[in-house]
Structures are given as C-alpha cells and as structure tokens.
Here is the input.
Amino acid sequence: MADPAFARSALNRRQFLGAATALLGLPLLAGTTLTACASDSDTDAVTWFEPEVRRSNGGTLSTQLRVAESDVALGGSRIRAVTYEGTYPGPTLDVRPGDRIEVALINDIDEPTNLHTHGWHVSPKQPSDDVLLAIEPGDTFDYAYDLPADHSAGTFWYHSHQHTLSDTQVFGGLFGALVVRGELDDLPGVADRPERLLMISQTQIIDGEMVPGDKSSNDLQQTLINGTYQPTTDIAPGEIQRWRIINASSLFLRLQLDGHRMNMLAVDGDALTSVTSHDIIEVIPGGRADVLIEGANTGTYQLRSLSWEEFGPYYSSMVPAPMPLMNLVSRGDTQQPASLPTTLLPFDDLRAATIDRRREFVFEELEPRGTGDMGHFMYYINGTTFDHHVVNETMILGDTEEWHFVNRTYEPHPVHIHVNDFQVVAINDEPVDQQHYRDTAMLPPFGSLTIRHRFEDFTGQFVMHCHILFHEDHGMMQLLEVVERPA
Ligand SMILES: [Cu+2]
Here is the structure.
C-alpha cells in the first residue's frame, strides 16, 4: 500500500473524501443509479452508444452547439445535465483539412461559457479559437475556424474553456469529439476501417442527480465511455477496427485490452512515422490515441485502465486499482486476414532544428488539506497564477524554441499548449525518441519535461496550462503571445 501522504493527489482535484475507499480500489457503488451493461453471462448484449455525427460538405460545416440543461441519457438513466445539444457527449464534428467550420455557440445557462477546439492548429483570435472570450448567459457567439489545408488528420475534441469554470463545465458534460479526415485516413491499411469512438469521461450520480464537479469526490466517480458505464461493443475475429480514444477525464489512463495489441497510428491527432504495437498505452488527461485493433478469437475481452503502482508512490493514486472500462465481444465469421500498415507519414524531427530560444517553466502547488476549503488550493507556473491581463511569454512567428518544464509537486501534470503542437525530446532530462508531435504531455512528479515546438501560421494570444482542469481553474495556466518578427 502506498503512503497515504502521497495518495492524496491527482485524483484528488475535488473534495477529498473517503481516501480509504480509493486506496483499496473498492467498487464505485455508493448511491449510484449506474449499472454495468454486461456481466460475464450477458456479454452478447451490445450496449454501444456514439453521439450524432455532423459532417462537413463541400468544404463547410455550419452547425450550432446549444449549451443548456436537459435530461440526457447517461449511464443507462436519464440525468439532468448541462450539455451541448442535449447529448452526452455532444455531437461529433467530422471535417477535413481546408474546411471552414462555423459553430453558433448558444449559451442558455446562467453562467458564462465558451468553446475550445482542443488540438486544432487554427487561429487563436476571435471568431476562431479564442479561449479568453466569455459568452454570457443568453448570448450566442458565431465561432468560425479555418482549418489549414495541410492540417494533420486524427482525433481531437472540443470543450468549454471558461477559466475558473472549466472543470465544472467539462465534468458536467460540455465536451464532444472532433474528427479530421485527411492524408492518414487514405493510407492502405488505414482507409475504410470500421471505427469506434471511445470518449472517456468521469461523472458522479447520486439519487439520479449529477453531482456538480466542484462538489463531487473522485473515489465516488464512475468512468464512462460515450456516457455509458462499462458498455459492450463488438468485433469479428480478424476484423481490423480503428478506435479513436479521447481522454476527456482528469485520469491518467493506462489502457490494456485483453488478448489484443493496440497498434498506434496517431497521438493527439498527429500521425506516427510508423505503426507501433503496444500491450499498454498511456492516454493522459486531454490526450488522444488512434489505434487499430485486430479482433481476436471468439470471446469476450475487457478494456481496462491499469494502476500506476509500478511507477512508484507519486503515481499510486492516479488510478488506484485496475478499472474495467468496457467489454469487447468478438463474434461472427472470421474475416480474411488483412495486413496492418507499417509506414505512416513523414515527420519534421525538431531534434535537428536550430533553437532560437530556451525557456523554463516551474510548476508548483499549494494544497492546504484538512482546511475543508478547496478554494485555498492554488497551482502556480513560475510563481504566478493565471491573469488574462498579463502576457507571460512572447514568442516570434516562425521561431523554434525548447521549453523545459520542472515539476516541484508530488503529482504529475498534463501540460497542454494551444495552437502549435510540440515534440517531447527529454523526460527527467533523459533524451527520448518520440517521432511524432502531440499537444499534451505528462510532466512527471518532481521531474522534468523538455519539448521543442515551432510557432507557425498564427499570431495572437493563447494559453498553456495543466489539463487537470481543477488545476487550470485554480491558476496553473499562462497567457502566451506569438508576434510577427520585428523588422
Ligand atoms: Cu496539474
């Protein structure tokens, strides 16, 4: 058993209740109406839900996302929740590079909200991905995103980014998937594979009501896939499916699927140079993975998230015990074996780049536990908390920089940077060989993370923050600005 002093941590972004339950990994049953959809004897039941898909047509997608409280299908019940368009998750927006995406965000709740297109390389200026905007109650804002013609293809997501309310709003249901179809999808072995969307989130339901994010307790939360608790989906033996996995929760997931390898195509919507095969994949808060799954022999297999116990005490509380997430039933006629792709897409390795500037960011936090007041929890980058009036760092368009993040806390933080993706080049000052970009990476406890990125195409102000949204809401975010190169 881990030292409880360390176990009060990443999961513990809300009120810390019932630590013993979390540590023992007891089933999450208290006061809930959620039920598992498949038992061992009933795995033929396919209980699979994916949200409505809205596709672009002729280079345009014009749609609305209405933010309102309604009864939504959640975990097998009807639950009051604030969502987009009355579904949990919201509709999937399915687009192509070069598209123009217009979204009327209608705010029909009694607090401000806004919209962030997580992972998209688009302008951070309004009416595009400006997360400093606050759309007030009763107002509608017409967002418009011009996705570059060379935008990477893969899996992204959208969610509320209203500072101080992000955690509550996203936890409550304000999120949905973004799919970009492009070059990666046309490759032999990737094209035309049947798809599954796995959007992973957390919720807490007591007596048929959702507990607001700031009042809920981590150890009483359920982990859902597309709003369903432990759903079941199917595959045929030998069939190759593409799974789009999105971590909309604050859990650091280590996913393992019984009897199957996970063949990785892309991380955070950025293609790998070649397919890599894994027994376990890590998908951190905010992160995504695109994988190919080849159906095993007839039977029922479990997807679960593993504990981090083996990584040491600072990780022990992230997922306290192996957590079942869904069942995969392999059934039907065996399909003709198809080959998995090997080579994917080329990649501009920034380890070879000339570095224009280096910067350092120190992550610290103050969690005065036992005070009973989460309002005292503060999270810092370079000694300050977020202030939208203050630009913390200014970069020059076209420059390539190396950033070194230092973690002076006992828990990991998922570092997310808007607009431009980055390459991880070292972890704990040891070089790593990651031949792809990403938009979110783990800063290890009492460790460091080194990344390289280039500021391309867009000037303007945007943010870098911890994607444990409770930490972001309580300060762990910086305002960045890219400017034209001075004459
Ligand atoms: Cu954090």
About this structure: Residues 1-339 form a domain with the Immunoglobulin-like fold (CATH 2.60.40.420). Residues 196 and 243 are 5 Å apart (CA to CA).
